[in-house]
Amino acid sequence: MALGARLEIRQGQGLVITPQLQQAIKLLQLSNMELEAFVEGELERNPLLQREDGERERESEGPAEAAPDVAHDVSTDRIDDAGARAEMDASHDEASPGEHATGDAPEMGAADAGGSVDWSKAGKGGSVGFDGDLDALESALSREKTLVEHLYDQLAVAGLDAAEQAVASVLIDAVDEGGYLRAELWEIADRLGCDEALVDRVLTVIQGFEPTGVAARDVRECLMLQLKERNRFDPAMEALLDNLALLARRDMAALKKVCGVDDEDLRDMVAELKALTPRPGAAFGSEPVQPVAPDVFVRESLNGLWHVELNSDTLPRLLVDQRYHARVSAAARSDQEKTFVADCMAQANWLVKSLDQRARTILKVSSEIVRQQDAFLAYGVEHLRPLNLKTVADAIGMHESTVSRVTSNKYIATPRGVFEMKFFFTSAIQATEGGEAHSAESVRHKIRQLIEAEARESDVHSDDRIVEILKEAGVDIARRTVAKYREAMRIPSSVERRRLLKDAV
Predict the structure, then answer these.
(1) What are the structural domains of the chain?
(2) pLDDT averaged over the chain?
(3) Quick one: angle between helices 162-173 and 196-206, nearest 10?
(4) Which residues pair with 175 in a beta bridge?
(5) Distances in whole angstroms, Cα of residue 76 to Cα of each of 272, 298, 421
(6) How many whole angstroms separate alpha carbon 169 and alpha carbon 149?
(7) Model confidence over 150-172: pLDDT tens digits?
(8) Are 421 and 407 in contact (CB under 8 A)?
(9) Is this model's pTM higher than 0.70 or not?
(10) Contact at 8 Å (CB) between 111 and 128?
(11) Cα 199 → chain centroid
(12) 80-89, 285-294, 299-308 — which is least confidently predicted?
């Protein structure tokens, strides 16, 4: 077979993720602190970029081209005002080409925020390096797990319903590095709009997590939890914990009197206390405390509508210095110098456009979340509605992967506190006959009410009977789901409940 050269033309389709598109996708998922670090790196690398506040503004030069002022342009939106929503939709139509491509290639756009990407070939479609991302991943995997992360791991398998998980998240965030709860239960209940009994019940669950003694409100409660776990919390030990001030003064005579024990028993009790740890969180790693800066503010206006606006303090304001660009372009002699200046100009313009689009997208997604969860803002955590990424994506005309990136590491400041955007997404249970779906939390509440109403053996409902009652109420649920929810709420089976009622009689 003879070898020869020939010319062929082939036509095909393919998705090309350009460096500019990768940058737009990466910026979308960065938190405000990560975005600030990224912008600082670009300011150091690109001489054509400068901050709007004039920090790097050169003397004797004219004004630079300003980036769009997103905070004043479309930073506010009354979610019930169709005109304002139409304005946001129109502004979003000028999105970067990456918006609809994110769903087709989500992994390629998910570069870690910690890595540094080389955009020096942005204008020529060159490749990019991800060596920095690997370093960030290795650093994240090698660091020691924090106490809060350890508690969240246990919360994921605790089987709490949606409302209880919301309360648990607030309680865990209030636990300090030593393992103590630094918040008042009534304050949390008031902020979340729920009963203090619910907060107390969830706190009891968290205090059952490892390490033993976590989420205690003082040293006495911390030691008491550890003694109960060892089955050593008796009246004498309780009296000793109630008089820790006497132990600190080494007043053994007074301790023997209040505890009702002799010298030998008191020595054993003190030795047991010394074997406990007053700081259950000390065994875990710690991180520098990073204050959460909300990306979006939600406020109630005078007419009862919810006012949504971006936090302008977290939005980088960059300028492209056109006068300096003209100056260095005229001074460039070699092709390499001209290419460098052109690349810097292209990257600067694209970065300004990407930051503008990122702000508009965050505002659009957060406005839809607030519209969907207005009952939570008005009435509290018990009124969280079923919500998923697809619902929000369909409502605003975006892809689910775009909404997922927007809601990662972004926070909303509401009258009930600061919450991550993903907090507002809860599962749903379908209704019978095509009715409105029920939230999983409301269904769990109905199951709990049915079981708590059981007063006699004949009133005990089996899981099948609960399914029938719920279907009559319009809830389409399977028996295994009822059993799963019942076990998650630590409610015994119908056989065990009948036995308990019989013993009570």
Answers:
(1) 19-53+69-138+293-419 (no CATH), 144-284 (1.10.10.1330), 428-504 (1.10.10.60)
(2) 77
(3) 70
(4) 181
(5) 60, 10, 18
(6) 11
(7) 899 999 888 888 888 889 999 99
(8) yes
(9) no
(10) no
(11) 20
(12) 80-89
